[in-house]
């Protein structure tokens, strides 16, 4: 969108702010507010501040719905600190503009055109038509799904922890799962244990996985599915998202089940049913969720590398997920098949995909891969970790996943800052960051074109 927001200065000058810049600045503001709150002594169980860098890392991870942590959430943060983290997760998952809209709707305030522009940008909508109604559906749908998930999880947690704590655990983990955040407060069973105590629990596993998948589909896809209820009538975007998501989930399950089946550090000791649950969970959680039921550091190298691939792809556009997105990889694969068949255009379900979308997909993948390599090199140089450990951590941050091979708490200041920036880029989006930093107006067509000349490829 080429629309601009304008802020008038005292002297009558105008500052032009694009909606994408508003989104980028909004996320940065929420992160800084969260970091300040988490530096307060009352946020730490030790009674002393955890320090600004730790607070900033945690606030960034929560707002960008990542889940990477340098300190255990349960054993480090008080109830106040945990609630701050939970609010950051919800704000980061929905988007700060949607949260602001909630208050506007409650107060009965009219949503201005400029605010509608930012809303459309935040949910990846191309125009402002119907954006407020769609936002209402997103808000109601989110609270309904999270509430249902919290109630189901409470069934398991209440007998273990009592009514109040059990409900609190249900709410915290339902929000964290649907927002694909990966934060947990299971440290009462052991620091950084995550959902390992529930590795063979069908209720906890299934509820968390369903919440993760629904959150990773994207708000527009959820709305299209629930309103259309017929695959043939779905928008092309929804069809591609659903098919790509299903393919990655099924492919991931088969890969992990086969490769890790006899691994004594992962699936090996589990029952037949437990192996299926754990392998499925391993396939779902790299889709930017960050939860785990088995030791990530115990995985075989092939599994770690495949997890990096899944984390790099991430979820779908307009969702709570990060990564280059499912549609990007789908477009690249479809284009590759089209070229192999000698076709000049890429099509799917009898619809032609515009060349502008193809270019955007390849540019996004290239920029994302380049950034991933850069952060990996920073981690290797700063902390002398192995390449696979650094690559895993970098992909987890960029994909806003939160999985780790166990090196996050030991990383240096330089590496932590690199991961903070990577989490922010992953949540806001690399193309959005570039657009936010660019001062040139968008042009649909060049003023002139140069003569064409072919070059050799391959």
For the largest beta-sheet, the strand count, sense and barrel status come to: 2 strands, antiparallel
- How much is the average pLDDT? 87
How many helix segments? 18
- Which outline best applies? globular
List the helices and strands and how they pair.
Blueprint: E1 5-8, E2 14-17, H1 19-39, H2 52-63, H3 73-76, H4 79-94, H5 96-107, H6 113-122, H7 131-161, H8 163-178, H9 202-217, H10 219-228, H11 236-259, H12 272-284, H13 301-313, H14 326-340, E3 347-348, E4 351-352, H15 355-383, H16 387-398, H17 413-428, H18 430-437
Helix pairs in contact: 1-2, 1-4, 1-6, 1-18, 2-4, 2-17, 4-5, 4-8, 7-8, 7-9, 8-9, 9-12, 10-11, 11-12, 11-13, 11-14, 13-16, 14-15, 15-16, 15-17, 16-17
Explain the overall architecture.
The chain is mostly helical and about 450 residues long. It contains 18 helices and 4 strands. The chain has one domain. The protein has helices spanning about 20-40, 50-65, 75, 80-95, 95-105, 115-120, 130-160, 165-180, 200-215, 220-230, 235-260, 270-285, 300-315, 325-340, 355-385, 385-400, 415-430, 430-435; strands at about 5-10, 15, 345-350, 350. A two-stranded antiparallel ribbon has the order 1-2. A hairpin with a 5-residue loop joins strand 1 and strand 2.
Task: Fill in the keyword field for this structure.
single chain, 458 residues, mainly alpha, two-stranded antiparallel ribbon, 4 strands
